[in-house]
Amino acid sequence: MNRTVLFVALRQLWERKLLNGIAVLGVMLGVLTLITINGIMQGFQQKFLINIIKVSPHVTIHDKELRPSASILARFDGGFVVTSVSHETPSDRQLRIHRPFEIVRSIEQMDGVTGAAASLAGSAVLAVGSKQYPVDLRGIDPDRQDRVTPISQFVDQGSYRALSASADSMIIGVGVARELGVKVGDVVRCGAALGPTMSLKVVGIFDAALPPIDNRRVYVTLRTAQILLGKPDIIGQIEVKLADADRAGEVREVLERGFGYDAESWQEQNANFLALFKQQNMIIGFVVGAILAVGGFGILAIQIMIVLQKTRDIAILRSVGFRRNDILTAFLLQGAIIAAIGAVAGDIVGHYLVAFLGTLKIKQEGLVRSETFMVYDDPKFYVYGALFALAVGLLASLIPALRASRVEPVDVLRGQIG
Amino acid sequence: MIPPPSSSRIQHLPRRPWPEPGPAILQAQGLTRELGTVVKTKVLLGIDLTVRAGEFVSLTGFSGSGKSTLLYLLGALDKPTAGSVLFRGLDIAALDDDERAELRANAFGFVFQFHFLLPEFTVLENVMIPMLRRGKRSSRDAEEHAIRVLDSIGLLPYLERRPSQLSGGQQQRVSIARAVANDPTVVFADEPTGNLDSKNGILVMEAFEKLVFEQGITIVMVTHERTFAERTSRQIVMSDGQIVEDLDQRGG
């Protein structure tokens, strides 16, 4: 590129500070929006994912789902003439994992595994006085389980250790405690569909800042859960924690092949949330894209106007020896420079805005509980914003630039001179 | 009509005999140009013309006689419908757009009726830009040269002014400086005095004459003004797209 072309482009840009300033502002707003919306959205999503990864197992092994066996009717399809079968009952086989502790010990030997624990999950109801509340009951081996899902970190009232000390104790989520109005030391009656009712003492309350878990989860010892749920000696699942959560997919496959049970990664368990996030991000992409496109239209409109005003000057430049490409380059350069300045300004303002939003006190309750705006300041977005703005700027100035490059000096001269 | 120049300056101008013209520099052969896309109008009807080095040619004729069109074709601003224009044996009509731009940058200079300076740039920058685009001089060299040229034309005090801050005559002299700064072989002028009062018109004419005498530059000028046309070394009169008279005025 010729330096003179750059010089001419810069001067003409500078001489129209107001118009080009407006175009810069449009781009800046687009980039700013991209950074802040993504910062907020990613802040929320990342916080949720981090918490989920922290408190959930990365891979869960459970018995193969019992599929209802094919109906008797199907077995005789095309043979006897049977129209209906009454009182078909499902199999009474229990979902369980055989020799669970051997499996746990061998999983613990695997590379990249930081913990494995056998547990039993089921539905139970807690009752205090006349108040009842359904919960998600987990019978755990407290020491092993804490290496997989570090509940002890989140126990802020009572103690996690106390769970192993007594069979009649339980640790409940902060939401469960609030719902029932109980505190550490209170005794709560607990029962499930197939087992006896037991009175258990609350020894700890945990707060993982994840309402879906805090509001439902109750931990008891494995043996207590087996009695409560009426499943003596049964282990329903084995949960595994990995050093690298992203490897959950491959580990899942290894475990499935190795032990012959079904396994599920945390991504699969949270598939609905991840799908939701994906959709959220797509919507954000559209919105931000639209805003940047509007910024692009700003450049387009202003540049077209400038080209119309400047036909005479273009004719002059062409007559003194500037080529079509020089004119094209000059206008593309102007678009690119507008976009670049807008992008840098948007990046800077966006950075401060994200930082400011992070200090705002806003109570949030939902998938994640937080006292402040959760923001995620990722340099990636600054680069994306800048690149996108540059592309929009170049694209928007392409039409005016092409138009400018097609100006025939002779047409302009004839028009002026008659 | 502008009254014939009565300023005393024209009388003081030395009427030197015109130099003997050199070899042919521009040769038009059967030059035809049609304008319009739907209804085609023949503006030039097969012009044959040879301009020789060091000539100061004026093209005169009524409006619509095709003189400006001929000028644009000779100056490689436009392409003929038929025929050829040879510049030092090179057929301009066969060149593509970029090559013609390059030719204009390297060999031609232009002065138009309206000053046609770039409003965002200073006088000095306006004169420097074609030189910088051509890239034959360093920017420092270009600046020095531009200052020299502007000085020779009496514009030294106005280097840093914008064109809008100058009078019409001064603006036109800046465009002459710009046309000349790139050391052109031929300067094309399209009614350079058309927008000026007679005093400034004479100053512009003197500037052109100086170019011919002192630098041996060839000039082709379209003009309406009889007095100026008569002062050139050769006057070509056009009518309806054809040359009707070709007057050698070297004798004065």
How are the secondary structure elements laid out?
The complex is a heterodimer of chains A (418) and B (252).
Chain A: H1 3-14, H2 17-55, E1 59-62, H3 72-75, H4 100-108, E2 113-128, E3 131-140, H5 142-148, E4 155-158, H6 162-165, E5 169-173, H7 174-180, E6 187-191, E7 198-206, H8 211-214, E8 217-221, H9 222-228, E9 237-242, H10 248-259, E10 262-265, H11 266-269, H12 271-309, H13 311-319, H14 324-359, E11 361-364, E12 370-372, H15 379-405, H16 409-417
Parallel strand pairs in A: 3-8, 5-7
Antiparallel strand pairs in A: 1-9, 1-10, 2-3, 2-6, 2-9, 4-7, 5-8, 6-7, 11-12
Helix pairs in contact in A: 1-14, 2-12, 2-14, 2-15, 12-15, 13-16, 14-15
Chain B: H1 8-12, E1 24-35, E2 41-52, E3 56-61, H2 67-74, E4 82-87, E5 90-91, H3 97-107, E6 108-111, H4 123-134, H5 139-152, H6 168-181, E7 186-190, H7 198-215, E8 218-222, H8 226-230, E9 234-239, E10 242-248
Parallel strand pairs in B: 3-8, 3-9, 6-7, 7-8
Antiparallel strand pairs in B: 1-2, 1-4, 4-5, 9-10
Helix pairs in contact in B: 4-5, 4-6, 5-6, 6-7
